[in-house]
Amino acid sequence: MNSFIRLFAVLLFALPFPAIAQDGIWLLIDTKKMLLDVKLGKVTLVRFDNISIGRNGSGFKHQRGDEITPLGRYKISWINRKSQYNLFYGFNYPSRKNIETALKKKLVDIKTFNSVMIAHKNNRVPPQNTPVGGLIGIHGLGRADKKIHATMNWTRGCIALTNEQIEKLDTWVQKGTIVVVK
Predict the structure, then answer these.
(1) 130, 158, 159, 179: which is closest to 50 by C-alpha?
(2) Global pTM?
(3) Lower CB density within 10 Å: C or N end of the chain?
(4) Is domain 50-176 classified as CATH 2.40.440?
């Protein structure tokens, strides 16, 4: 993308009215600094702070229910606008890398490995009931307590924003948006 188009996109997305989700937009989630950045290339367009992650921090998910937010590169595979958490952006978790590591560590069998890999090859949502979990994504609070959100990590492995933040994020996210969780 040349510099004129990039500058135009940055200026367009800086306007106070809601923008339409665009190709080239990606999300960077920093689980140490508790930030979610909306990026266009290397440029940060919007920053959301005070996010929450899994109760047991971030890292490699070893099993369903371990309450760890998985690190890695994902895509938004589905969007639920009627979630109990206000909005839910589901990742294509487990990723190819996640499931390869899980197979090497003998956390999944070859049948699970193959079904996840086939889903990725066919650009479908991978199985969400794997031994290393599923249903990972970004969501709002819904009716959850803002005070708890502000004081501790409380999710089962997802990334949570306030309802106001998730509604602002909605102008930037679409199915296929890349998400990097570090």
Answers:
(1) 159
(2) 0.87
(3) N
(4) yes
